[in-house]
Structure formats: C-alpha cells, structure tokens
Amino acid sequence: MKKSKKKTIAFLRLGIILIIIAVGAVGLTGLFSSDQEGTSPEFAVTIPERDFVRRVLTSPEGKYLGRKQVASFTSVGDIMYHGTQITNAYDSARGAYDFDENFMHVEKFFNAVDFAIGNFETVTAGGTPQGYPVFNAPDEVLDSIKNAGFDVLTTVNNHSLDKGRTGVLRTLEQIEERGLISTGTFSEPEEEITVLESDGIRVGLIAYTYGLNGMDSLLTPAELSYMINRIDEDKIKKDINKAKDQGCDMIFVSLHWGNEYQMSPTSQQEQLAMKIFEWGGDVILGSHPHVIQKSEIINVNGEDKFIIYSQGNFISNQRRETLPSISARNYTEDGVIVQIKIEKDMVTGKTVLKTVNYTPTWVHRYESQGRLRYEVLPVKDALNTMDLTGQTADKLRQSYENTVGKMTYYNREIR
C-alpha cells in the first residue's frame, strides 16, 4: 500500500513538472514571437519571468518595443547656396527670402524616417548674404531645411570659417533656435558626442573636415582645438570610443574629404575608411567632391559596414552652365538621398545594418516668372510623373544612370 502510494505521488510530481515545463515553453514562445502577426505582447505580463524581459523591451516612456527594433535614416551631400540662388529667392514684395520650393519634391523622403541628415556647407552669420567664395546664407535657408523635414545638420566643412568665429557661433544659434541638431562645429568644448536616439536605438554621429580653406588663423589655437572637428586619426578614434562609452549601438561618421570634381576616392581615403571601421565606426557618409562617388558594403571582423565616399551636391548652382572649365561639370547637378535602416535585437543588444537604398536626385534650374528657380528632383519620380522633355529629360536619364552605377544596394532580409 505504501509502495503504491509512493508511485502515485511520484507520478503526480512528474505531471506537475511536465506542466511547469509546458507553461514555460509556451511563455518563451509567446515572448520571442510577440512581434509576429496574430500574437499579443500584452500576454507577457501574465508570467513574472516574461514581465521582466518585457521591461527590458520597453522604452523609458513605457512603449513596448518588441524583440526587434528598427531605426531609419536619410543622408544627403552638400547643401550650398551660391549668389545666384540667393538673389533669385528674394521676394521684394515681402522683403524676405523663400527657399521652400527647393525641396518640395523630396520632403516626403525626409518626413518618412526617424532622422534626416544633411551637410550644411555654408554659414548664417547675419548681415549681407553672399555666395562663393565666402559663403553666408540668409537665415531663411534654415527655415526651408526645417520645413523639408531635416533633423540634423553637419556643420563642419572647408567653409565653416568663411565668416570667422562669429559665423560659427551664430550658425549654431540659428540651427538650435529651429530645433535642429548640429554636429562638427561647437560653441564650447564638448565632453560627449552627438547621439541620435529612437525607441531604444542609440546612434552616435561624429563629423570632421579635411581643412578650412586656410582660414584656421581666424580662431585662436585654443578655439580651434574644440570649435572645429578636423580629420585627425587620434581624435576620430577617441570620439568613437566616447560613443561606445555613451552606449551607442552604431556610430555614423561624416567626413568632408577627398578631391573636388574627382569621380573616385583616393587610396588615402580608402585606407582611412578601413581604419575607422576597425576602430568601431559603422557607417561613413562622405561629402566635398561635388560629384557622386562609389558606395560599398565592407565586412570587417564579421560585421557589415557601409560607406559612400561622396554623396554629391544636394543643392547648389554648380552645373554645366556655371563650370565650363571643369571636366566633371555634367555631374555636379547630381545628388543622392541615402536611405539606411538599422535593426537592433532588444534581447541580445546586437545591432546590424538592415537595408541601404538610394534615391538619385538632380538639381533642376529653370526660369519662370522672371527669375531662376531651383528644385531638387527625385529623378525616377520626375521622369515618371512630370512633363519633362528634350534636354531636361535626357539630363535626368544620364544623371540616374551615373548615380545608380556607383551604388551598392543592401538588404539583409533577403540575403
């Protein structure tokens, strides 16, 4: 009788253990499939262990993130304002400038992402606006950039000191007044680097320039040491380590470098890029040559990294009509909107490139109502939807072929 009772108790214990294992298995399945269609993350609160992991997958605001989270970015090259652009944007009736039409065809690409980044290659120093060779754009350009959906401007390039210290400081003030983020130039020493954060994903953004057109002496040595990020391997490596210390999941590096009007990067650029990737950088966004250069996916220590050596001109007055002596003048009207998605596993903390795509653009300059107008056109959309014929359509097709021929597409989902 005692022996039979022991067997019964043993069977009961075994049954209870199996039930616990089964419930645990269901719980884990529900946890790690909560992003799939037909499952509810709310089920996670019914089991204490899953509730703990749910808190890990929750933003500081209490929003449930799911196991996989994606952050999206766009980036464009040089945003420049030459004298002709400035003059033709002036509305004498209102006594003000208006640049909104520059971006009306492309703003949808910037409003569709978490962060839209552009290289602001001018200053807003106040006073009389002027173009090349000493740039000083009206404040209204920042209004139009903001209205178009940009979130972040890199402000470090060879024209950062065109209006000296005042130009650097006032440009940063005007950018901040409009709620935009800037990096690359600074009003005071910065202990931390710029971080772009979206739903639990932190991306560090650091930016540097090769030089300042010989205007370095407009700042004292002390000011130069912190106000302008110049390309220096030790500094870049140090800033990458700062980004890691600040808990960044990925690090984007903006570099104003290379040779103007050259269709390919130099070997020195390629060598520096590899060093940056080995130090821990993940994405390199290049500018300055005013023409588009190649993009690549490079695997470093088992991780895919992305670089585009030059994103071309996003908007400027550099074109075949204004650069007759430049052999690459046909390509200075070309730009590209780089579209990047990164994905973070919120359980393991691993973050990877998810997709890299591109929207080729072209600066359309034409005369209407007695003035020149400038519009950045998304080339493929423009060819399909706008009534463009003759030379304009031919230029668009040539621009598209030139751009896509240099781009490397990436999609982790179908690899």
TrEMBL record:
Keyword Nuclease: no
Protein name: Poly-gamma-glutamate synthesis protein (Capsule biosynthesis protein)
Annotated TM spans: 12-32
Keyword Phosphoprotein: no
Capsule synthesis protein CapA domain segment(s): 72-318
Family statement: Belongs to the CapA family.
UniProt xrefs under Pfam families: PGA_cap
InterPro entries reported in the protein's UniProt record: Capsule_synth_CapA (IPR019079), CW_Biosynth-Accessory (IPR052169), Metallo-depent_PP-like (IPR029052)
SMART domains assigned to the protein according to its UniProt record, in alphabetical order: PGA_cap
